[in-house]
Structure formats: structure tokens, C-alpha cells
Amino acid sequence: MHDHPMPAPGGGAWQAVPAVAAAVLPAVAYLLLVRRAARSGRRPPGRWRTAAFLTGCALLAVALLPPVAPFAHRDFRGHMLQHLLIGMYAPLALVLGAPITLLLRALPVRHARRLTGVLRSRPMRSVAHPVTALALSTGSLAVLYFTPLYEATTADPVLHWSLHAHFLLSGCLFAWVIAGPDPAPSRPGVRARLVVLGVAIAAHAVIAQLMYGGFLVDVHAPIAEVRGGAEIMYYGGDIAELLLAAALVATWRPRASSDRGVRRRPVDTSPA
Q: How does pLDDT run across 96-105, given as a tens digit for each residue?
């Protein structure tokens, strides 16, 4: 850690364009798919799933627009707040909107079958494995903050936006394979996913504690900012991961006991 101001990438009003697009276009696309699914006679997602997806888009807007975006450019604590919004909170809300199920219902049968084939393909099974998702999301944090990569992203707008894209995509991938209502290949049982989530929580905490203590961290920002950012990562990450754990436990449907002598009706597991 170095006690001098953190550099900021080039600014300008043009930066609001990709920020607005990243938040608005997914929301518009989702609502159009809801309308198309309803018109085709297929059951669209429930209102709360639509609200969850739109909440995710709103969180992206909050993270990428003022006042958070300028704060992130000049203060490491702002960067960490932005990181949590883009990489943890927004992805969880987006995934709970069940966008893949909605897309499958809105597409023609032929295209829906092709998409299903892609989801079941071997490359997708490798990418969507919980361990792969863990490495891409939580594992990449050590590479970012313990190498010169973070400083490079503060000086290059292309790398800066690429980092945002990585946070969002890896966060969505992890939330999807751990607790997403959409179908996913290579998804193990709930207990195994809880173990992977526990590893993520522990890794997040260790990285935050190392950052707070100034060990291994390669962030050229005032010490107070780095420690503040570490605290935001530690506590804010815990809250996000507890929410993810709650979403995961909500999908747990234990088998009905056979000693009750009551025949239960089948449970509708499709996203509502």
C-alpha cells in the first residue's frame, strides 16, 4: 500500500452511454420476452421474478452512474462498493429473475431446443461447474488485488470496463450455478453447493483480511482507503453471500417421508 492518491481513468460524459446501455438494454429485453411469452400462451415468470431482474438492472445503474462511479474513480472504497454491486448484488438479483427459463419460453421451439443443446454441451458443463465458477469469481480477486493488474485497470478505460464485465459475468455465473432457478448443467446437490459457497465465503474473508493488514496487496492508494475498502469487501461480501445462501436453501426440497402414508402431489419446480 502506498499513501498517495489513486489515479483515475479518463472521464467524460461519453462514459454514461455504456453505463446506461448496460442497465437499460437487459431490462427492456427482459420485458419484451415477458410480453412475447405471454402472447404465445406460455406462462411468463411471476411478478416477483420480474421485479428481481429489474432490481438487478437498477443496481447496475447505481454502480455505473453518479455518484458511485465518480467515487469509485477517485477512492478505493468507492471501487470496492462498485465491485460488490456489479459482482455480487446485481448478479444475484438478475439470476433470480430466471432469464434463461424466460428465454426458452419466448423462443420458437426449434430455437429453444438449440439453446437447450448448448446448455447441455460439454464446454458449458465445464464452464458451469461450481468449482470453475468459484475460480472465475472469487479466485480472480487475488489476481486482481495482489498483482499490478488493478493499477493497470485504473489507467486504461478498456481494461476498466473489461473488469466491470468480468465482475458481472463471473458473478452471474456463480449465482446461477449455486442458487439459480434456471436449469444448469453440472449442478451438484444442495449440500455440495453449500460447501462451494462456504469456500467462497472463507476465501473472500481471507482476501479482505490480507488487504486490511497490508499483506501481499498491490493497490496504490492511501492506507485508510485500502483498509476501508477491505472492510466493505468483508462485511458487504458477507451480506451478499448470506443472501445467496438463503436463495440456495430456498431451492432445497427434502423428500417426503414415506412413513406418513400420505401421497403428496408433485411439486412444480419451474420458476414462477
A: 999 999 999 9
End-to-end CA distance of the chain: give it in Å, rounded: 48
pLDDT in tens, 63-93: 999 999 999 999 999 999 999 999 999 999 9
Question: pLDDT, tens digit, for every residue of 224-238?
Answer: 999 999 999 999 999
Residue 133 CA to residue 68 CA, distance in Å, equals: 27
Spell out the long-range contacts of 161-166 with Cβ–Cβ below 8 A and sequence spacing 24 or more: 161/18, 164/22, 164/64, 164/86, 166/140
Is residue 10 exposed (0-12), middle (13-18) or buried (19+ Cβ within 10 Å)?
exposed
User: CA nearest 163: which of 151, 179, 174, 178?
Assistant: 151
**Dihedral in degrees, nearest 10, Cα atoms 265, 267, 268, 272:** 120
